[in-house]
Amino acid sequence: MKHMNSEVKEERTSNKKRIDLFLVPIVLIAAFLNLFKIWTDEYANAYYTAAVKSMLQSLHNFFYASFDPGGYVTIDKPPVVFWIQTISAKIFGFHGWSVILPQALAGIGSVLLLYVLVKRTFGVWAGRFAALAMALTPIVPAVSRTNNIDSMLVFTLLVATWMLFRAVRTAKFGWVLAAFAMIGVAFNMKMLQAYMVLPAFYVFYVVATKINWKKKIAFLTTATALMLAVSVSWAVVVDSTSADKRPYMGSSQTNSVLELAFGYNGINRLTGNTSVTGSSHKQSAQTEQQTASSETKQNSNSSADSSQSSNQRKSSSSQKMQAPGGGNQNGMFNTGNPGPFRLFQKGLSDQISWLLPFVIFSIVGLFAGVKFKGSYTTKQKESLFWLAWLLPVAVFFSIAGFFHQYYLIMLAPPIAAFAGAGAVALWSMYKQHNGWKSWLLPGGILTTAALQVYIMSPYVSSIGVAPIAGVGALGVILALVLAVRKQRKNSLTNYLGAAAMVVLLAMPAYWAMTPIIYGGNSMLPSAGPDSSSGMGGPPSTATNSKQSGFNGMQPPGSSSGNSSSNNQMQPPSGSSNGGQMPGGSSNNGQMQPPSGSSNSGEMQMPGGSSNNSQMPNSSSSKSSSSKRKSGGMNAEVNKKLLNYLTKNNTGEKYLFATTDSTSAAPYIIKTGEPVMAMGGFSGSDPILTVSKLKAMIKKGEVKYFYLSGMGKGGQSDVITWIKENSKEIPSSKWKSTSSSAQQGPSGNGTLYEITLK
Fold this sequence. Notes:
Elements: H1 2-15, H2 23-35, H3 46-55, H4 59-64, H5 80-92, H6 96-122, H7 124-136, H8 139-144, H9 150-170, H10 173-190, H11 198-208, H12 213-239, H13 257-271, E1 275-276, E2 279-280, H14 282-299, H15 303-309, H16 349-352, H17 356-367, H18 378-399, H19 412-431, H20 440-456, H21 460-463, H22 465-484, H23 491-517, H24 639-648, E3 657-658, H25 661-671, E4 676-677, H26 690-698, E5 704-707, H27 716-724, E6 727-728, E7 750-753
Parallel strand pairs: 3-4, 3-5
Antiparallel strand pairs: 1-2, 5-7, 6-7
Helix pairs in contact: 2-6, 2-7, 3-5, 3-25, 5-6, 6-7, 6-9, 6-19, 7-19, 9-10, 10-12, 11-18, 17-19, 17-20, 18-19, 20-22, 20-23, 22-23
C-alpha cells in the first residue's frame, strides 16, 4: 500500500512539471490532421447532420435522437454522441464543422490520453512515440474529420482505460466502478462495439490488482452490473415508452432499441447475416455504399481539392462494378475477405496496418522472459492489457461478415501503444546486446518497411514509384546498418535508430493527410489517395477523370458522356436480389438499369437530377460554392421542388414523404421542416402500413410523396397504394433543369399528391 501511495504522490508531482515540449508538435500535428478544412464540409454525413438539425428543435427529438423534426423515426445509433453534437451546434451555430468539431477534438484527446497512459509506465519517449503513432494512424484523422461516432467512442474507451489504470494504482474501488460505467456510456454511443475492450479490462484487473480472489470477483461483478445498467438505461426508457409517443427506432425490425443493439448493431456485424424476417438489412448496407459512392463526384466540386485530385481518383474503364456481396475481390466496402491475413489485404492494410510487423516484434520483446507463474512487472501487466485489447478486436475484424473500414480505429490505441512501448524496449535490448532480443529492432524495421512497400504498391499510379522505392530502400539499408553496428555505441547509431522510426512513419503520415489533400468522404470515411471515394481501394488508371469514384460510378443526375455503360452502376428497380443493389438483376456482377429507364449508360439514384444535369469535371471546373456538400447523394436540395412544396402546403405536418433518408436529409438540413423517410435510413424499416398512412393523410399530416425505385423493402404495399390512389404532379412544375449542380429529388422519381376525405 505504501508503494501505491508513493506512486500517487509521484503522479501528482509529475503533473506539476512543465509541459513536455516534445509533445507540443505532436498535438499540433494531430490538431492539423483533425481540424484543418473541416469547415469545407457543409453537410458532413447528412443522415446524422439532419438528426442534429431535428434534435435542436425540441427536447423530445433531442432525447430520442429523431432523424426528422416530426419525430417519425430515429437514426440507427444511440444518442450520446449526437447529444454532444447537438450541444456543439447550439453553442457555435448549426454548421457542418460544428457537428464535426466534437469528433475532431476527441481525436486530439485520444492522442493526449495515449501519451499519458504509456508515458507513466514505459517512459516519456515511449509516450511520445505512441502519441505520434496514434496521430499518424491514417484512419484516426479520416474518421475524426466527420460526424461519425467512432472517434468519440475510442476517446471514451481511453478515458475508461485511464480510470482502470488509476483504480489499480490507487486500489480504490470507486475508480473501477467509474471505468466500467464509462464503458456503459460508450455502449450508448455505438452499442456492442464498446464491449470489444472488455477482455482487456477483465484480464488486466485480475492480473494487476493485489487483492484476494473473492474481492476480485465481487468487485468485477458489481462493476459489470453497473456497466450493464448504464448500457441499457436509455434503451429501457425508450422500449418501455408507448410506440405512439415516440419515434420508431430506426433500422430495427421490431421498433426496439435492444433488438437494434444486439441484432443490427451487434451479432449481425459478426455473422454478416443481414437478412431479418420481414425485411433485409442488406439494403442498409447497399444504401450506404450507393450514397458514399455518389459523394465522390460531389467532393470533386471543392475548389480547394480539385486541382490536386484530378489525377488521383480515377476508375478503370474496364473494371466492373460489383454489388455488395457480389464477389468483389476486396469484399463488401473493400473490407477484404475473411481470414487470418485480412488486415494485410488491400482496403484495410492502408488504414491501420502500417506498423503491425513492428508491433509484433515489440510484443515479442515486451513479453520475452515472462513466466506464467510468478509476479509480473507493471510493464508486463500493462502490455497484457494492450494485447488483450488488440487480439480480440483483430480477430473480430479478421472474421466479421460486415463492417466499414473506419471501424478499424478500434485497433489504433493498442497498435500505437505497442509501437511506442516497443520502440523504447527494442532499442534498449539492441543497445544492451541482449542476445537474440537485440535482433528484434532491425528485424522489426525490415519487415515493417517490407509491408509498407506491399501496402503502397497498388497505388503506384497515384503516388509514383519514388516513395515506394524510397521506403523500401531506406528500410532495408537502415535495418542492415543497425544489424552491422550492433557492437558499436556512438551517436551515429542513435541517429540511425531515430531515422528508422522516421522512415516507418513517413508514409502513414502522408496517408493521414490524404483526406485534406484529396478530400474526404463523410459517409464512409477512409484514408488514401482515393479517400474521397470512401471505398478505400487502390485507384485505377482510367484516363477520363469524369469516371473518378468507385469503379466509374456516376452521381445522381450526371451524364455518362463518353463513358462505357459497362462501367456504370445502375439504380435498382425495387426488387431484391442476393448480393446486388436493391432491384438490380444479375449480369456478371454489374448493376442493371431500372425498369423503364431510358438512360442505359447513366447512373441514376433517388433524388438524382435531371438527365441534362452533369457534375463539373474535377480537373477543369470549380464549384460555385466554397464548401463541399459531401453528406450524401442529395447534398443539395431541388429549389424548384422546395418552392413548389412550400407554396402548396396547406398546413400538413410533413413537407413531403419519401422512401428513405437519403432523399429526406438535405431538405431537413436546409429547411428544418419535417420530411418523412417512410422506411427509415435504407427504406426497409417496417414502419408504415396502408391503414396508418391513410389515417395520417386524413388527419392532414402529409399529402406529397416523392417515390423512386429505391428503398422499397417492406414498403411495397404502401408504395403500390400510393401510386394507385394519388395524382401525379407534372415534372415541369417541380423538376429542376439546372445543369450546374445536383438538385435533389428530380431524377427518375415521381412526385405524387394524395388527399383523402
